Every structure is written in C-alpha cells, then in structure tokens.
Amino acid sequence: MTKKTDQDVMRENNKKLVLKTLFNAGQTSRSSIASTIHLQKSTVSSIIRELHEDGLIEELGIGEASNAGGRRPNLIQFNYRYGYVLAFDMGARHLRYSVNYLNGEVIKKDSLRLIGNSVKDVFQMMREVISGLQAFDTMKGLLGIAVSTHAPVHENEIRYSPFLELDSFALLPALQEIVDVPIRFENEANLTAISIRDFWYYTGEEPLQNLLALNIHNGIGVGTIINEQLYYGVQGLAGEIGRSVIYKDKQVYRLEELYSEKAIMERIAKHEKKAELTVDEFAALIESKDAFVLEVVDEWITAIAQMAYNLVQYSAPEAVFLSSRSLSQFPDLLQRIFEEYKALDPLGETRIEFTQHDIYDSSLLGGVALISRQVLGLESQDLVFKK
C-alpha cells in the first residue's frame, strides 16, 4: 500500500473542509467558501472542480453583486439529489423505514407490522422494501443503509436482542448480498442522540456539545454525546442503563423491569385484567384520572426524575432529552419530571426536555445522519441536516 504524503493528507483535509462548508451553506460561491475556511481561492476552485466532476456540486447561475460592487459571483450549492439513503428501525412490533436525501429531507417513510419476531422475518421485509426502491430523481440512487436496533451493537454486529430472535442469522451479510452499498447498524438510543445533535435547531443558541438522550420504550437506554461525538464505551455497551440493578421490596430488579414503558403498561394491564395495553388505552386511563393508574404514573415520574438526576451527576451534560411514546402525549408530565428533578438538584444547570421529533423519527433521522456522513466521508465534521 502506498503511504500517503503530508501533501495528500492536507489535500484530503481541505476537501473535507470544502465539502462540509458547501453542505451547510446552502447557496454560496467559491470565494465565499475560501473566505470562510481561510484557504486560497485557487485551492478551493480546484477542489470544487473535483467535486463537480463527482456530481456533488449544483450550479445555480450568476448571483447578485455585493454592496461593495465587483464581479457578480457564480453561485453553487451541494447537490442533495446526488443520491439517497435508507434508514430502518427494528422495533419490537414494527419495522419502520425512511428514505431521505443526503441533507436529511424525507422522500418517503412507512411503518410495517412485524410478522413473527425472528430476524429472518425482518430481513424478508427489508428485502421487499429495498427491491421496491426507485431512483427518486437522483444521480446515483441508493448510497447507503442504516439499521437502528433496540439492542447493543459492536463492530457493526448486534450483540444480543431482547425483542427479536436472532436465530444465528447474520443480517449484515444477508443485506450485503442484495445491495452493494455501505450498511451501518447502531443502537436506537445512540441514533436518537445523533439526531438531536444533527437535526436540532437552536434558535439564538450555540449547538449543544454534550447531551444525553434518555429513551424509555420497551427498554431503557441512553445515547451519549461528548464534545459533539457519540460515546460507545467498551464493545458498544455504553448507555445500557436499563440493565442497572435496583433493590425494591426485598428483591433485586433490573431498572427496565420496573420502569420501562413496557413494564409500566404491563403492570396496568394486569390491574385492568387485560392481556396487554396499547399506548392509546394507557393515555385514556390517565385522562380519566383512574386512581391506580395515577399512582403508578406518580411512581414512574419519580423514577424518571431520579434516573435523569443520576445521569447528570455522572456526566454533567448541557441537556437531557427524554423520549417516550406515552409521556410525549402529556407535556404536563414532563413538567412534573422536571420539578422533581430540580428538587433533587436545585442548583443544577442541566435542562430536561422532550425530543422535538416524533419518537419513531428520532432513531431514523439519526440513522440518516450516520450513514450520510459515512457516504460523504464526513463522520467527524460539524454538519447541519434538514428535515
């Protein structure tokens, strides 16, 4: 293998800077890019030519002259229709997917009810989705696939799954046999954290550099962003807070056995003498002010506030973002969580809020950002995506 020279490395770094600036800028010009990243115009123009040949540049024509006069600039922008990416979310009961342009804009999305709980069944559904994809008015078509899993992931492999039967079936090689594009697997809480970092809009604020995404669904997981980068931990096991132990009623439980959304609804379903409880039924019971349900919810709110407090004491983030299907329907419950949290830490500066996106969109958008960055070679760059 030929060793890269310092000049080659510098050229690659400059190309990434130009591409990042182009990606974030919208309409811009060669001179504006050169000024923004402090490179010579000749260097930027050379890189722009290369990106243009690759199909990553869209020419927009002549723009307006500046207030100081001078030549009118040739406007360009990143070609978001260069290709598209596909993101899957493998839930406990549904396979959700989203097809997006490289800048994050949604082309189409859907949710499919899972038939069975075997990963082989999931693969068959994925294959049908992939086979039905079109070019969607892009140059290159499908460029990459991200798969969100409700389970730990290490070196692009699902370590185990509490909801799907893996059956010793290798999902990644099976997907690689039907499509020749990069494929990334990632934990759904991690992808939620990525979606907040890359799609969140901070009106009048600097983007957050350190944040936690606390996801409370069928399990409990945390995605951690430190200095704008995702923290994985040893073998991808960071954030498995649901597996933490808690002593209650003279027994040892896993945290998610007591306070995951699944555990709470199973507890209420048992009281209601039902086999299971839907989110809508749970919400209706809260609205009806059912005494037993309100008692369970009170305990749940306290538990979530304590979880958030413990997480903040450990990592001191700027914000904790909560994600829960049922809690998201009741903003007043978030206020109660925040009030109980503040009572534990009255001087703390960390804010707590719900994710802006639909909870199912969060992991999909995180997958879109993850695989788009890989396709463009901009994994560690500061990019701003659009919905």
| SSE ordering | HEHHEEEEEHEEEHEHEEEEEHHHHEHEH
Biggest sheet: strand arrangement: 6-5-4-7-10
| Low-confidence regions | none
State the share of residues found in helices, binned by percent: 40-55%
CATH fold-type name of the largest domain: Nucleotidyltransferase, domain 5
How far is the N terminus from the C terminus?
Answer: 41 Å
Structural class: alpha/beta
How would the global form be characterised? globular
Strand content: 15-25%
- Can you summarize the main beta sheet? 5 strands, mixed
> For the residues shown, what is the average pLDDT?
90
CATH architecture of the largest domain: 2-Layer Sandwich
Radius of gyration: 23 Å
Number of helices: 12
Offer a few descriptive terms.
carbohydrate metabolism; five-stranded mixed beta sheet; alpha/beta; Nucleotidyltransferase, domain 5; 22% strand; single chain; globular; xylose metabolism; 387 residues; Arc Repressor Mutant, subunit A; 12 helices; 3 domains
Question: Can you describe this structure?
Answer:
Residues 17-58 form the HTH marR-type domain. Keywords: Carbohydrate metabolism, Xylose metabolism. The two termini are 41 Å apart. By secondary structure, the protein is α/β, with parallel strands linked by helices. It is globular and about 75 Å long. The strands form 5 sheets. A 5-stranded mixed β-sheet has the order 6-5-4-7-10, with helices on both faces. It is built from 12 helices and 17 strands. It folds into 3 domains: 6-78, Orthogonal Bundle (Arc Repressor Mutant, subunit A); 84-193 and 362-376, Nucleotidyltransferase, domain 5 (2-Layer Sandwich); 202-355, Nucleotidyltransferase, domain 5. The model has no long low-confidence stretch (mean pLDDT 90).
